[in-house]
Write a structure and sequence with these properties.
With 150 residues, the protein is an all-alpha fold. The chain is built from six helices and no strands.
Length: 150
Amino acid sequence: MPKAPRKSRSAGKKKRATPFESTAMDVDTAVEVEADVQQQEQKPDFEKTAAESAADEGDKTVSNHEIFRRHTEEWKKMKVRVADLKRQRMRLPKKGNKDKKKLISQEIKKLIADLREKHDRELEEAGIVSGSVKYKKMEIEVDENDEDAI
């Protein structure tokens, strides 16, 4: 006896509205364009210091929670840029593009190091000491005499 045809899983479900569909609310497109231009002229969020971002928001004090939330947002944005750079590096032909690959790798390392340094500096300014800051501050000095004893 043959099997009965299966029903589709989407049968009876509502279709999802298109997320990018324009609505009647989109009347002031000229104002939006001006706002977009102003946003592009400003620094991206992950390049701003704690003081600049607080000044933009109008707050005089920034809570620890807000600092960590902003740091996670900045870190995620940086990871997207790094992933894009890695894709660009991967798409380069194997032969003859060693210099370009090295430049992209250096840029990736620079993005990560700059953001990590900026976050550590902001945490120090706020009086919050994270693990990475503690370990950077520790300096283990090894005497030459101790090496001979080992």
